[in-house]
Structures are given as structure tokens and as C-alpha cells.
TrEMBL record:
InterPro entries (alphabetical): FAD-dep_OxRdtase, FAD/NAD-bd_sf, Rieske_2Fe-2S, Rieske_2Fe-2S_sf, Rieske_Fe-S_prot_C
GO MF: 2 iron, 2 sulfur cluster binding; metal ion binding; monooxygenase activity; oxidoreductase activity, acting on paired donors, with incorporation or reduction of molecular oxygen
Annotated organism of origin: Kribbella capetownensis
Descriptive protein name: FAD-dependent oxidoreductase
Keywords for this protein: 2Fe-2S, Disulfide bond, Iron, Iron-sulfur, Metal-binding
Length: 501
């Protein structure tokens, strides 16, 4: 039987923390208890700051706890394109930043003694088509990265690769245990974490920023950091400057020993693999099925495509033990936004392009130094206020035209079910009732959950995601549980109920 949930969270004893019950004062309030939030908070607490972390659910429960667990400077077939588009200096800075992050994570794990299955292993990029990976290897090596073109036999996957690039001495780890270790080190140093304390508003006063939670209590601090995947609400306009993407993962056992290295394809559909130490020598993690959040009504097909791919390679009937989804945001110029939001004292980090363990570690250092008033080598590269080049501007226009069409057309496009009485267990979607069209889902216990299927962020129509049992917004990536609770922002408030309380 397949467990619907992250293999990392299922195999981690994550520390639990109380809800924020009264107002507090601190030097820094960090909103978000994922990789970026916890790393930044730990760094600042080590430097003597009084830091409070506010997490809307449980620490590590969303994207950071659903990552692949690769810590690598190898980010797909990226460097040749980055070089051609932005020039050698920018490409070299990005390479240096992420390779430094690989070593920084290794240092943190060793210094704190975190038991997170940290392993040095090569990261392979391969093509089974016509991708020019030889030039990718040459550019990456010229930028100072440990990249080499190698024979396809090194890959370890039973497929016909035409070109293969190997990045040496990269890392893989158990992200759940790494996050737990960071949280425990932070609290040992005097930091405070509050679970289930969702921030709904940040009010910047004359000298303090007030982070108000949904239950009422707030934290007042001199500095506020939004480490929430995408900044909440309208902060910085990042909802209009990024696009949300989902990927899907499975953990399973092969009939043979799993390949020892990490791999990712340069061709579509992208397939990313790594060993699964917890699954024994035959354990394998496979991630792929990328698509924009909210553009599919049933992601079950994405999971099945991963299962079919593994089964076809090793000629067996694959059955995953775990399956899960993760979300991240991309920027129009391929570089994350980290630093002070335009026109605001609030610090942000977003747009990690699914390489959050390395990019997120870089972001944490930039945020730490911004609070401490120190220069950071990579703050200019990741400038949170940049507009970008002409291509980036064109992509922004294109993306926002799409959002406008989704907003206008989505309210007219209704896939109506026959009525609430006919909803089967495990089924959800849009249904026509006497009170109008509502969103409904019947859970495994037979309980019916109903919502108004309109995003609480900016009013975009929501789509039911049958594979994940979530309400997804294709405009800006907010996601909601069947009962309307916020799972991912920029939305901060739950969905409305179709009936009065």
C-alpha cells in the first residue's frame, strides 16, 4: 500500500512547539519554519540576536520536508544558458554561490552533529536526445565547478544516454532530519519557535514590525524575514513576478541495487533520481512530473508516469511505498529574489527554482548579513528588487497575461458534478447546488467538506486537485486543504464556507 506523504517526514521525529499565545518582542521575527527560515534563524541566533520563528503549520511540513534531498551546484542544464543570457560574471557568481552552499551544509551537519544520512556522491546530468551537454560541461568547468563529460556507462541507469555530465563531491541528505537538527540547534541557542501560528499580516511601524498571527497574538521585532516560499499577501508584488510549479515524488524498491549517484535528465519530461538509504540498497527516490500549480485537475497521472518510467527501465511492476508533491516558484531570469522587498523594510527570499537546499542556504547567508548590516558576496546577484533583463520583462508580461486569462475565464469554466448526494468517498470537485457552485470533497471517513472555490488571496478561481486532494490556484500558487485551511501562500486566510456558521 502506498503512503500518501513525504518519505522524509514519515521517517523523522520532528520536534513540536507550542502555539503563540501572547504578544512577544524580539530582535528578529522569521516567518516560515522551512529550510530558509530555520537556517537564517539559527545563523542569527548564533550571532547573538534574539530570534522568534513563526510557522503556520509544523516546521518542515511543506516544501522543505518534500524536497528531493539533493544539495548540489548541478541545477540541470543551466550554466550554458546562464552564461549566454547573463554573461560570465553572473554565471560564475551563481556557480560559486551554490558550490559554496554545498560545503556550508556539510560544515553545518558536521559541526552540529546532525544525523541526516549525509553522503558525498556524484550528481549526473544526462541526455537521451540532442541536448548539447558537452558545452554545458565545458561552461560549468570554466566557471570553476567540478564538472566533467563522462562515459554513459557511469550513469548507472539502464537507458541509452547520448551525453553525460558528472559533478563531483556533491551531497545528498535526509531533509527531514536536517531540518529537525537545525531547529534543535536553534532552540538550544535560545531561539523560540511557535508552530501552528500562521502570520496573516506584517505591519511596519516607525521602528518595529508587527507580525500578527491568525489567532491574534503578535511578535514585534526590529527586523522581519518572510521565508514562506512566496511572500504572503501583496508584499513586494512577488506573486506577479514568479510562477508556481509542482513536482511529484515516489520512494520505492527496485528488484536490483539502486544506482549510487544522483541523476537528472536534461530532456523532457525531467526525471530526477537519488538513492534512498532508508529503503536499503535497492531503495530509490524518483521525482518529476513538473507542471504549473493548478493547471491539472488530477495529478494522479503525474505519479503514474513516474511509476511507469521506473517499471519500464527495470522491467518490473513498480509499486511505490511513498508518494508526495512539492511546490516551488520560478523567476523570469532564473535567479532567486533575496533581500529587502521594494518599498518595504521586510526581508524576503523566493524563487529557488526547486534547488532550495543550495539556493536556500545561500539565501540564509544573505538574509543574516542584511540583518547584521554586513556585506554579502552574493546579495547583488540575488537582489530582491531587480527588474531583470528584456527577456525577464517579456516573460513577466506573458505570465501576467496568462493570469488575467485564468482569472477571467476561470469563473466561467465550471466542471459541474451532479450534486452533493452523489459524491463518493475520496472524490472532490466543483458541484452545482441550489445555492450555486461550491467546492466539495468527501474524505476517507465519509465526512463532507465544502468551500467557496475562490482563492482568498486575490479572488482567482480554484481547481480541485484529485491526486493531492487540494484546492489549487493557478494564478499565484496558493493551495488549500479540503476544509479550506491554507497550505501554501501567498494567501493567508482560509477559504470561505458556502453556508453561514
Amino acid at each position: 500500500m502506498t503512503i500518501h506523504g513525504s518519505v522524509w517526514l514519515a521517517t523523522t521525529t520532528m520536534p513540536e512547539y507550542d502555539v503563540l499565545r501572547s504578544d512577544l518582542d524580539a530582535d528578529v521575527v522569521v516567518v516560515g519554519g522551512g529550510l530558509i527560515g530555520l537556517t537564517t534563524a539559527f545563523y542569527l541566533q548564533e550571532q547573538g540576536a534574539d530570534v522568534v520563528v513563526l510557522e503556520g503549520a509544523r516546521i518542515g511540513a511543506r516544501t522543505s520536508g518534500n524536497t528531493t534531498g539533493k544539495v548540489t551546484s548541478q541545477h540541470g542544464a543551466m550554466y550554458a544558458g546562464l552564461f549566454d543570457r547573463h554573461g560570465a560574471d553572473t554565471a560564475r557568481q551563481y556557480a560559486d554561490a551554490n558550490q559554496s552552499a554545498v560545503e556550508e551544509v556539510a560544515e553545518v551537519v558536521q559541526r552540529l552533529g546532525i544525523d541526516c544520512e549525509l553522503t558525498r556522491t556524484p550528481a549526473y546530468l544526462y541526455s537521451t536526445g540532442t541536448a548539447d551537454l558537452r558545452r554545458e560541461a565545458e561552461v560549468a568547468a570554466a566557471l570553476g565547478l567540478p564538472a566533467h563529460s563522462v562515459d554513459s556507462q557511469e550513469l548507472g541507469l539502464p537507458l541509452a544516454a547520448t551525453e553525460v555530465v558528472r559533478f563531483d563531491d556533491q551531497l545528498q541528505l535526509h531533509p527531514g532530519r536536517y531540518l529537525a537538527g537545525l531547529a534543535e540547534a536553534f532552540t538550544r541557542a535560545g531561539g523560540r519557535i511557535f508552530d501552528n501560528s500562521r502570520v496573516v499580516e506584517l505591519d511596519a511601524g516607525d521602528d518595529r514590525i508587527r507580525a500578527e498571527t491568525s489567532s491574534g497574538p503578535a511578535v514585534r521585532a526590529a527586523h522581519a524575514i518572510l521565508a514562506t516560499l512566496l511572500p504572503i499577501g501583496l508584499t513586494g508584488g512577488y506573486f506577479a513576478r514568479t510562477r508556481p510549479h509542482q513536482s511529484h515524488g515516489i520512494a520505492l524498491h527496485l528488484p536490483v541495487q539502486a544506482p549510487a549517484g544522483m541523476t537528472i535528465s536534461a530532456d523532457e519530461p525531467v526525471r530526477s533520481t537519488r538513492p534512498w538509504p532508508g529503503g536499503g540498497p535497492n531503495g530509490l527516490i524518483v521525482v518529476g512530473g513538473d507542471h504549473e500549480t493548478g493547471d491539472r485537475t488530477d495529478t494522479s497521472s503525474a505519479f503514474q508516469s513516474l511509476i511507469d518510467w521506473v517499471g519500464s527501465l527495470w522491467n518490473f511492476r513498480a509499486q511505490p511505498e511513498y508518494r508526495w508533491s512539492a511546490q516551488d516558484y520560478s523567476t523570469p531570469d532564473q535567479l532567486p529574489y533575496v533581500g529587502k522587498a521594494p518599498g518595504s523594510p521586510i526581508l524576503v527570499a523566493t524563487g529557488m527554482h526547486k534547488w532550495g537546499l543550495s539556493n536556500g542556504t545561500v539565501a540564509a547567508g544573505i538574509l543574516r548579513d542584511a540583518v547584521l548590516g554586513k556585506d554579502n558576496t552574493w546579495s547583488g546577484l540575488y537582489d530582491a528588487g531587480r527588474i531583470g533583463d528584456a527577456t525577464a520583462v517579456a516573460n513577466l508580461v506573458k505570465d501576467n497575461l496568462k493570469v488575467g486569462k485564468e482569472f477571467a475565464a476561470g469563473h466561467l469554466r465550471r466542471l459541474l458534478g451532479p450534486g452533493l448526494d452523489h459524491i463518493e468517498i475520496g472524490e472532490g470537485g466543483l458541484f452545482d447546488t441550489d445555492d450555486g457552485t461550491i467546492g466539495a470533497y468527501r474524505d476517507r471517513d465519509g465526512n463532507l467538506h465544502t468551500v467557496v472555490p475562490v482563492c482568498s488571496h486575490l479572488g482567482c478561481p480554484l481547481r480541485w486537485n484529485q491526486g493531492d486532494a487540494t484546492w489549487d490556484c493557478n494564478c499565484h500558487g496558493s493551495r488549500f486543504a479540503p476544509n479550506g485551511a491554507v497550505l501554501d501562500g501567498p494567501a493567508t486566510t482560509p477559504l470561505k464556507s458556502p453556508t453561514p456558521d
